[in-house]
From TrEMBL:
This is Delta(14)-sterol reductase. Its main location: membrane. It holds the Pfam family ERG4_ERG24. InterPro entries: ERG24_DHCR-like (IPR001171), Sterol_reductase_CS (IPR018083). It comes from Cafeteria roenbergensis (Marine flagellate). Residues 1-23 are annotated as: Disordered. Keywords: Lipid biosynthesis, Lipid metabolism, Membrane, NADP, Oxidoreductase, Steroid biosynthesis, Steroid metabolism, Sterol biosynthesis, Sterol metabolism, Transmembrane, Transmembrane helix. GO terms for biological process: ergosterol biosynthetic process. It is a multi-pass membrane protein. It comes from the Eukaryota. GO terms for cellular component: endoplasmic reticulum membrane. It is found in: Membrane. The chain crosses the membrane at residues 40-62, 82-105, 125-144, 170-187, 310-329, 349-366.
């Protein structure tokens, strides 16, 4: 995540049918430099993403794609096992639940950054309430199942989400849903006059389908409002599903060790029930750090309106599958792995890992807060004495802003990326060193951040010209001070 504040002024919703600019070069910019290896590279990434998601959900021991018994030898048998009505219904129902919560729950309406056409779209900010309520509903469902209330059965509780067969069904259904949704988005981008995304308008179908052809696909809702699909999918259904999938192993562990019963006895004033097995502190550390990360993301939801995902990339398979499938199923695998491990981590090892996570979160949050404060008021008391480039304002065409070159942002040009990665690394460290797959997040996120930093550097060099060169000379480190 990267952040900055944006205007929260309430204005009348601009009519999308009346363009602010008529130039086809503005509405339909062509892809100049294909990314991710072009059509061939994006095709390979599509296959690898899908196989990875299916692999990490096949068993709790995180088999590699070629270790899944019939994925390659008998695909028909695999599909027959993985394709179930529940596997499709639950992801679709979860998405519709969040759509309902987004519409029903109140939220502040803000304007996004100006589009190439001059328009500013409206966004409703109620992500924190939607995610929190959906997780509470999931936990309430678990309690109802465990107590056999309303005709529900314990087998339908969150324990179901820790079973490899259940996860395999959910992952398969979600991946299929992402393929279908991405295809619909691609075809819809040819209907009427749509503002296209420069990275996804090459004219090559497989590449544009992956990158996303339309910049801001929206659905019309009742009452004249609109749902921005890319913004909605960025933090709502997938991030909340991540929390539920992360909480499931912890809830099951509490029940299986007797800790839940002991806590209830203590609250009731009775002698606590003895635990039947020791608690795994590293499991709760992982869950705590991951839930903290998600809540931070939705609490500062407005910040994503100025990220590359929103202002530059289209909404295709890359973001659709990334938000709805990759995030919940691969980001939550550490807790599932720890639940099935026989031995826990030594106390000192998980304390160090947790400290790395807290340090990373502090760097990430404090650096982003400083940037947001600077962008909201460059002459505010907290930032007015920090070095900037240039000392004078940029030309009006550049927005009249200044580049922050002090504080956190004098250490490295993307110091927040370092904090973000350290936090994710801590989840992996809490699994120990017996298996490489729990470290998938650390390797994947390192690649993602390195690639994103290069994209952002190229964009800023084009936008700011000599001012960016001056900033790079003053702050030579990209992400890691004195190292990279």
């Amino acid at each position: 995540m990267t952040e900055r504040s944006s205007s929260s002024m309430r204005q009348r919703r601009p009519a999308r049918t009346v363009p602010a600019a008529e130039d086809d070069d503005v509405w339909k910019p062509r892809t100049v430099d294909p990314e991710f290896g072009g059509p061939v590279g994006t095709f390979i990434i599509t296959i690898l993403m899908s196989l990875t998601i299916l692999s990490v959900t096949h068993t709790g021991w995180l088999e590699l794609p070629w270790q899944i018994p019939d994925l390659f030898t008998d695909p028909a048998a695999y599909v027959a096992r993985a394709a179930t009505s529940l596997g499709f219904a639950i992801p679709a129902g979860w998405w519709l639940l969040h759509l309902t919560l987004h519409v029903v729950l109140p939220g502040r309406v803000v304007l996004g950054v100006p589009l190439p056409t001059g328009q500013r779209l409206r966004y409703k900010l109620n992500g924190f309430a939607c995610v929190a309520l959906s997780v509470v509903l999931a936990l309430a469902w678990h309690v109802a199942c465990e107590t056999s209330s309303f005709g529900l059965r314990p087998s339908q509780s969150l324990r179901w989400l820790t079973l490899s067969s259940s996860l395999e069904q959910l992952a398969f259904g979600t991946v299929c849903m992402c393929f279908a949704k991405s295809t619909w988005l691609y075809l819809a981008s040819f209907q009427g006059r749509r503002l296209l995304a420069e990275p996804g308008n090459s004219g090559v179908m497989v590449y544009d389908w992956f990158m996303g052809r339309e910049l801001n696909p929206r659905l019309s809702l009742s009452g004249g409002s609109e749902l921005d699909l890319k913004f909605f999918n960025e933090l709502r259904p997938g991030m909340s599903a991540w929390v539920v999938l992360a909480l499931a192993p912890a809830v099951v562990h509490l029940q299986d060790t007797g800790a839940g019963a002991a806590a209830l006895a203590f609250v009731a004033g009775r002698d606590p029930v003895a635990l039947v097995a020791p608690l795994k502190a590293e499991l709760f550390a992982v869950v705590g750090l991951q839930v903290m990360y998600v809540l931070d993301s939705v609490l500062f939801e407005e910040a994503i309106l100025t990220t590359m995902d929103i202002i530059m990339d289209g909404f295709g398979f890359m973001l659709c599958a990334g938000d709805l499938a990759w995030v919940p199923f691969t980001f939550s695998l550490q807790g599932r792995y720890i639940l099935q491990k026989d031995e826990g981590l030594p106390l000192e090892q998980w304390l160090v890992a947790a400290a790395v996570g807290l340090l990373g979160f502090a760097v990430f949050r404090l650096s982003n807060l400083q940037k947001n404060t600077f962008k909201a008021d460059m002459d505010g008391p907290a930032v007015r004495d920090l070095p900037t480039i240039p000392a004078r304002s940029l030309p009006p065409r550049e927005g009249g802003g200044r580049l922050l070159a002090g504080g956190w942002w004098g250490m490295a040009r993307h110091i927040n990326y370092l904090g973000d990665w350290l936090l994710g690394l801590s989840w992996c460290l809490l699994t120990g060193f017996e298996h490489p797959v729990p470290y998938l997040y650390a390797f994947y996120f390192a690649f993602l951040l390195l690639h994103r930093e290069r994209r952002d550097d190229h964009k800023c060099a084009q936008k700011y010209g000599p001012y960016w060169k001056e900033y790079r000379a003053l702050v030579p480190w990209r992400i890691i001070p004195f190292l990279y």
